[in-house]
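Thanks for the sequence, V.! I ran DNA 3'-5' helicase II right away. Repeating your input here for the record:
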Amino acid sequence: ICENIAGLHRTEGVAYRDCAIFYRTNAQSRVLEDGLRRAQLPYQVIGGLRFYDRKEIKDVLCYLRLLVNPQDTVSLQRIINVPRRGIGQTSLAKLEALALERELYGLDMIPAALETGVVGKNILAKLRSFHELMASLREEAPQMGVADITREVLERSGYVDALEAEQTGEALSRLENLRELVTAAAEFDSHGEGEGLQDFLTQTALLSDQDNLSDESGSVVLMTLHSSKGLEYPVVFIAGMENGLFPHSRSFDEPAEMEEERRLCYVGITRAEKRLFLTGAARRRIYGVEQSHPPSLFLADIPTSCVQDFSSGAVLEMARQPWASPTSGMTTGNGQARVRPSTSVGAGSSARKSAAARAGSSAAAPYGVGTQVHHQHFGRGVVQKREGDGDQLKLTVVFRDHGIKKVLAKFAPMQPV
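Predicted structure:
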C-alpha cells in the first residue's frame, strides 16, 4: 500500500490527501501506521486515535513500564485501579501523601502502606494482591519474550476478563487492539534485536511521540469502513480483504450480520472516485501467531472484467470457490487486486446475485447429517441437523472443541473432510 501511494505521488503527482486507506477493525491500523512511518508518508487517523494513543494500549504499556522501572509513579497512578480493583481516589490520595512524606516512588509506596495501615483493611488486601502480582511478573519478565510477558499482563491483571465481561462492541474493539499489541511485541521478538522489554518500550514511545510529517500535499487518510460513509477520495485502498477479517469472523454464522458486512464492503468500494485497490495479506500475525486466511468471499461479487489482478496467484479464483480451505490464504506477492474505475453499481449488483446463487445452490450438497467437517474457526465437527435449503440452509454442528454451533451453510468457512 505504501509503495503504491509513494509511487502515485512521485510519478503522477497524486496528493497524499487524495489517498485513503480503509480497514474493517481499528486494530488493523497499527501495521498500516508502522508502514507509513517507515515510508515517511504523512498520515492522519480519522474518527479515532492513533494506535499507541488508545487508552487500552497506554494502560498495558504502563504495566510493562512498571516491570522495567518499579519506581515509575506516573505509570502506577494510571493502572493501580485498572481494571477496577476498588482502589479509589481517596485511598490513592492517602497512599501518595505517605509516599511524599517518606520520599517513596512507584511500587515502593505499597509496602509502606501495608506497614502503616494508612488505608482500611479491605483496601490493604487489594494493595497486597496488586503488589504480589507485579512482583511475580517482574520476577518472570527477564526470562520471557516481550509477547509472552505482555500476554501474562493481559491475563493475570484481569484486563481481558474485564473487557470480555462488558460484552459490548467497544469492548470487543479494545480486545482486538490489545491482541494487535501482542502481535507488535511478537514481531519485535522475531527480529531478535535490542534488549527485550526495555527496548520495546523505547520503540513504542518513539512511535507514539513522533510528530506527524506534513507538506503541501497533505496527509494520507486512515479510517475504518464505518467511518467512511459519506466521504469520497480519488484513490482508495481497502486493506484486509480476507475471510475472518472482512467479512468479520463473527458474521459467518449470522445471515443478517453477513449482509451488513456486504453493505459495508459496498460502501467502501463506492468511496473511490478514480481508483480502488483491494488488498489482502498472504499471512498475518494475530495475537502473535502467524495465520493464513482465504481471500474475502466479497471478491467473488465483483465482475472479473472490472478487475486487474496484481497478485502472483489465483486470488480471485480462490475467492470464488464455495469452500476455501482453512489453510489456503492469499498467495505470496503484492497481494492486491485493483478495481477499474469503470465498475458500475449495476454490474456489481448482478454479480453479487449470481455469486450468491452459485454459493447457495452448491452449499447444500455435501452437508448430510453425520458428515464430518472442518470449520476455519471452530475446528473439527459433525453435522447433527439440517434446517431449510438453498441460501437458507442452516446446519447444527457439534464441534469437538467448541460444542454445538448453528451455522449458515452459504457463508460458513467450512468444508467436509
